[in-house]
Specification:
Radius of gyration: 17 Å
Order of helices and strands: EEEEEEEH
Distance between the termini: 33 Å
Helix content: under 10%
Structural class: mainly beta
Number of helices: 1
Length: 83
């Protein structure tokens, strides 16, 4: 499942090839012509690079791992609010 920028979610098919570090996504329910072909690179222990095409458009992204202790919900106490 992926979440679109407008907040809607969509189920996609994912084919991962661990030997080539590639993945292919498709969405036969929503748009049978929509595809994504991505290559994954792991240049460091805290870095993941994703490159490829999404629906014919070139894209690239760098993903940096952030320690869980840095997430706001883990830094403060959770409080319930009531009306």
């Amino acid at each position: 499942m992926i979440q679109c920028m407008n907040g809607e979610t969509d189920n996609v098919t994912l084919e991962f090839n661990p030997n080539k570090d590639t993945m292919r996504l498709s969405d036969k329910d929503w748009d049978p012509n929509w595809t994504a072909k991505l290559t994954l690179e792991n240049p460091g222990p805290q870095l993941l690079r994703v490159k490829g095409t999404v629906n014919g458009v070139e894209m690239s992204a760098k993903l940096h791992r952030i320690p869980e202790s840095e997430f706001p919900l883990t830094k403060s106490r959770f409080r319930f609010t009531t009306d």
